[in-house]
Design goal:
With about 450 residues, the protein is of the alpha+beta class. The strands form three sheets. The chain has an eight-stranded mixed sheet with strand order 1-5-6-11-10-9-7-8. Strands 13-12-14-15-16 form a five-stranded mixed sheet. Strands 2-4-3 form a three-stranded antiparallel sheet. It has helices at about 15-35, 50, 55-60, 80-85, 85-95, 105-115, 160-175, 185-195, 200-210, 210-225, 230-240, 250-255, 260-275, 345-355, 375-390, 405-415, 425-430, 450-455; strands at about 40, 45-50, 65-70, 95-100, 120-130, 145-150, 180-185, 285-290, 305-310, 320-325, 340-345, 370, 395-400, 420, 430-435, 445.
């Protein structure tokens, strides 16, 4: 019985044309990273399950692809835990590894494991696939690439400035205009919770606030009410969320509002410093905005958080994000290692550029010349000269069989090959070749000794 060919849900095949575009993005991002002195690393596609769980929050943990134990290990399945409905314990008994959910946590593990080999502050970039058991939709896949840049080992706010500048450099190079960088600070959000005497509910607050683009202000307030936020707290939260109308005075208003909250004031002070660095410096491709409703759902963020919004002409949501994390490596026994990282949404950037039509017209390395095949002796001579051209970085190929010339020329047309070299029995006797221009149909005879110079 034959199997219907199809890709697994949330994955894709890529054609040569698509790969050319993806490599174009990848090369620009690599150059941008390296111009900021970031060095590349790679980590395994899967990690120990305990490495990847407990840092993304309950919702994130559910999206981690677990790898089933193989061989005799599967016999250690805790069937009693399964019968008792203890899914966490049962899962641990049948799975010890998982596909990486993002690049940040594996990087934190990398830093802790290789700390004696690294020079701090350490700057790294990484471009690799990640996997999430998410519901596939436009711009969201279960297998996709992430492009991350991180700096660890110092808590200087100039690193936040660096990350914003890096975003601007990369989007300028990609020629994507109208990108908005939204920034906020986790300690401002913690200060708001302190003001409400709801400090223990910070995670509930940030997790719900992270959904604001999907459910709106009222949806956020309703969900917070379900999480037992008081009516008085909800009124203050609503007032704070409406502050986005006060573009110029938000920080000063918040300083008054959070005057009794040391943590909140620290966050405001840090954010003010970061924004001040760009007051007199015109960012080339991005617009920087303070957005108090920005929360980001991942729990490991502790300082500035950032999200990148696509140009208004494309309805696709965020195309990047990141933030400051102070405690991530402590999970691996390395304390006091602050870091900041940002990510470029590779797949969505591709969709944005495709939709805006801003990819260069010629990206794929098409065949420049085809040698027609007129039999064994002619093919041997053709193959000799084909290799000479390849040594000069000319992309070429020999038609594999002695087929009718019409078929060979149709092949050239189908592949968009502009030049075809004909070396038949007559040409061999005369030490010549015919160059056929596939666009004009013109045919010109040359000496074989001219074949290399003709393509210089």
């Amino acid at each position: 019985m034959s199997i219907k060919p199809s890709t697994p849900k949330g994955t894709r095949d890529f054609s040569s044309e698509e790969l050319s575009k993806r490599n174009y993005i990848k090369n620009i991002l690599q150059k941008s990273f390296e111009s900021f002195a970031f060095s590349p690393i790679e980590t395994p596609s899967f990690e120990r399950l305990e490495t990847l769980t407990g840092v993304y929050g309950e919702e994130g943990d559910r999206l981690v692809f677990k790898i089933l134990n193989s061989g005799d290990k599967i016999n250690k399945a805790d069937l009693e835990a399964f019968s008792d409905g203890d899914n966490h314990k049962f899962t641990r008994s049948i799975s010890e590894k998982a596909l990486r959910y993002d690049l940040t946590v594996p990087f934190a593990r990398f830093v802790a494991q290789h700390q004696n080999e690294l020079i701090f502050p350490y700057r790294r970039y990484q471009i690799q696939p990640v996997w999430r058991a998410d519901r596939p939709q436009y711009g969201r896949y279960q297998e996709f690439y992430q492009c991350d840049a991180d700096i660890v080992g110092e808590r200087s706010l100039w690193q936040e400035v660096e990350m914003i500048s890096l975003y601007d450099r990369a989007f300028s190079a990609l020629k994507i205009k109208g990108v908005v960088l939204k920034v906020n600070h986790r300690e401002i959000l913690a200060g708001i919770m302190g003001l409400l005497n709801e400090g223990s509910k910070l995670i509930d607050f940030t997790t719900t606030l992270d959904k604001i683009d999907k459910i709106g202000h009222q949806g956020v307030l309703k969900e917070l009410a379900k999480n037992n936020f008081s009516d008085e707290s909800l009124k203050i939260i609503e007032k704070i969320l409406n502050l986005h109308e006060e573009k110029k005075n938000q920080i000063s208003i918040l300083k008054d509002l959070l005057s009794s909250q040391e943590q909140g004031l620290k966050g405001l002070s840090e954010l003010e410093f970061i924004l001040d660095q760009f007051k007199d410096k015109q960012l080339e491709s991005v617009k920087l905005e303070f957005d108090l409703s920005l929360a980001r759902g991942l729990h490991y963020y502790t300082g500035m958080i950032i999200e990148v919004k696509a140009p208004d002409a494309v309805k696709i949501g965020s195309i990047g994000g990141g933030g400051r994390y102070d405690d991530l490596t402590s999970n691996f026994g390395l304390k006091n290692m602050s870091g900041i990282g940002i990510s470029f949404g590779f797949e969505r950037i591709y969709l944005v550029m495709n939709e805006l039509g801003i990819f260069p017209e010629k990206l794929s390395s098409r065949t420049q010349v085809l040698f027609a095949n007129f039999g064994e002796k002619a093919a041997q001579v053709s193959y000799y000269y084909l290799n000479q051209l390849r040594n000069k970085n000319i992309t070429g190929e020999l038609y594999p069989t002695e087929a009718k010339l019409k078929k060979q020329l149709n092949y050239a047309n189908s592949k968009g090959i502009k030049k075809v070299i004909l070396i038949g029995s007559e040409e061999l006797e005369e030490n010549s070749f015919i160059l056929k221009n596939m666009s004009s149909g013109e045919q010109t005879s040359y000496s074989l000794t001219d074949i290399i110079n003709l393509f210089n």
